[in-house]
Amino acid sequence: MPAAFVLGLVLRIAILPVAVSAVDDSWRAWSYHAATEGPAHMYGPKGHTVQLGDIDAPVVYPPLALDELAIVGRVYLALSDGRFPDDVRLTMTIKGAIVLLDVLLTTLIFLIVRDAAGSRIVSLAAVAYWLNPAVLMITALGYIDVFLAIPAVGAVVAASYGRPWLSGALFAAAVMTKPQGV
Prior knowledge:
Layout: H1 2-15, H2 21-36, E1 49-52, E2 55-58, H3 63-79, H4 88-117, H5 122-130, H6 133-141, H7 145-160, H8 164-175
Antiparallel strand pairs: 1-2
């Protein structure tokens, strides 16, 4: 099983520099504006957009996604000495955040399954997520679905442990990250 985790990590590291502008242009512009102006200043009248170089991206995601991208943007600013060049390093920073959250979700799955089903299938469950072709494709393309997956999974777990208030808060976080959280 360790080889499967290494393979998944190698695949994820290999795709870090690959930009998919049809997907990540929004994340690039949103992370810049969220980091420099604050997420609250990004919404505007219908059709409001933010720019980063040649990118003109409408702001159409819920507020928590912009808060999360602000963190990514601030990390990128720190790594770039206060500048925000739209280059491969920005792609790697955004996808690096996705990969880190993939690691977190894989760890969460591991811990949940270990507690619920025991050690016999725990590695299989974690590898099933880690090497899932759909997850790898979403990560390769640069979609931030894992940003909503973590609180969504947490909501289900909290509900199954009889914690409705925590489940509701985590569900709300998933929905405020991406509408697909519903």
